[in-house]
Amino acid sequence: MHEHHHASHHEPRDIADAYAEAIAEFRRRKDQAFAAGPQSPLLPADRPRFRGLTYFPPDLRYRFEGLPLGPYTGHEPLDFVMQTSDGQPRPARRVGTFRLELDGRPLKLHAYGFEGSDPDSLFVPFMDATSGHETYEAGRYLDLEPEDDGSYVLDFNLAYHPLCVYSPYYSCPLPPAENRLPVRIEAGEMLPEGIGGH
């Protein structure tokens, strides 16, 4: 999902439409993988009634391009143990901080890395004001890779639920408290209906 649209010869509506189509295709592929893929996280009992994941509509307002990764600005140790849904601790590191603005409100999200993972790949788990309502109570995830210029695209339309939403057999990292956003992020995955006990 690293689409690059050039505004020089497109109207803004064309860009939004192309983006929505790209997101829709990405979601179709994920639904196919959940429905019939060998690595589907769905429990066998849930697969026959699976009709696709539930999402907020695509919204470019929740896509932030060209974000630099700044140094970690919190007060916690850089190396720490991230808690998980099943109590199996995972050694992690606070890699840096993203600063962004949504509807005029400044926000920050901290990015993490895991022991043994690609140092360029960032894990950004978060909670927001939809957590426990339209979305999973323990938050959602973003996976980020650097662009060619070293900046990042943080797109909440790609926010996804941990696999423990669909099955108790997964160990899912829990977002640290410092990554709780005081706003509603109405983008990305919503809780599925009738799947995984929801």
What's the gist of this structure?
The chain is α+β, with helices and mostly antiparallel strands.
Task: Describe the 3D structure.
The structure is a single chain. A 3-stranded antiparallel sheet has the order 3-4-5, with no helix packed on it. The protein has a two-stranded antiparallel sheet with strand order 1-9. A two-stranded antiparallel ribbon has the order 2-8. Strand 4 (90-102) and strand 5 (105-114) form a beta hairpin. It is built from 1 helix and 9 strands; from the N terminus they run αβββββββββ. The protein has a domain at 53-190. By secondary structure, the protein is an alpha+beta fold. The radius of gyration is 17 Å and the shape is globular.
Task: List its salient traits.
single chain, about 200 residues, alpha+beta, 3-stranded antiparallel beta sheet, two-stranded antiparallel sheet, 1 helix, about 25% strand, globular
